[in-house]
Recover the amino acids of this structure.
């Protein structure tokens, strides 16, 4: 069984790509978001220290709390690796497993164990120095629903407030635990680098062109 890691920052479109790919290729999908530790066991970050407009933490973020879901220590890697291994053992040798998450590149023993189970990797990324790209990504995150909850915009977070959250917490966490480590962690087999802001159809075409995914049986 081929196993492919799909790594990228939050709002890069990983879930959308997985759904679209499943329409045209025979894949099993494991989502790392399903393997977070309980909030009480997660690392924390300094939520109140962010430079919020008006200096007060927006109520939606105060409700969210300071659990840090953007660091590798927030993932139950043993359970994730067990799920990957179980899927690999039960699957047909010619099939493909797609493991998607934004913390798979982390400098963490558990993340390294998960990466070791993946023979190929695709990295969705964007240029952090490109203001337009950053604006597009944080607005995606700000306006989307997640885990069955209303979007942050719907919960009263202003664009200015969410931009602060993205610029001072979300994106720096991705750079620290994600993009800057890609070349170090995937040098042997290489990886496919994809613009996170290109149309989904182009991303699917690029993934299918690798030969990593068997076509869906009609």
């Amino acid at each position: 069984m081929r196993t492919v890691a799909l790594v990228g920052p939050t709002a890069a479109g990983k879930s959308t790509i997985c759904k679209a790919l499943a329409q045209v290729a025979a894949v099993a999908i494991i989502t790392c978001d399903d393997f977070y530790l309980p909030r009480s066991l997660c690392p924390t970050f300094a939520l109140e220290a962010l430079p919020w407009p008006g200096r007060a933490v927006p109520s939606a973020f105060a409700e969210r709390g300071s659990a840090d879901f953007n660091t590798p220590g927030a993932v139950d890697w043993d359970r994730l690796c067990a799920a990957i291994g179980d899927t690999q053992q039960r699957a047909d040798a010619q099939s493909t497993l797609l493991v998607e998450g934004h913390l798979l590149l982390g400098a963490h023993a558990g993340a390294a164990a998960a990466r070791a189970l993946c023979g190929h990797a695709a990295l969705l990324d964007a240029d952090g120095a490109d203001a337009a790209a950053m604006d597009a990504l944080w607005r995606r995150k700000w306006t989307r629903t997640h885990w069955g909850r209303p979007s942050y915009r719907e919960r009263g977070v202003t664009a200015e407030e969410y931009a602060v959250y993205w610029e001072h917490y979300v994106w720096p966490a991705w750079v620290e635990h994600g993009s800057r480590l890609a070349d170090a962690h995937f040098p042997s087999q290489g990886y496919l680098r994809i613009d996170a802001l290109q149309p989904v159809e182009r991303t699917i075409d690029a993934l299918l062109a690798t030969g990593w995914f068997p076509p869906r049986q009609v």
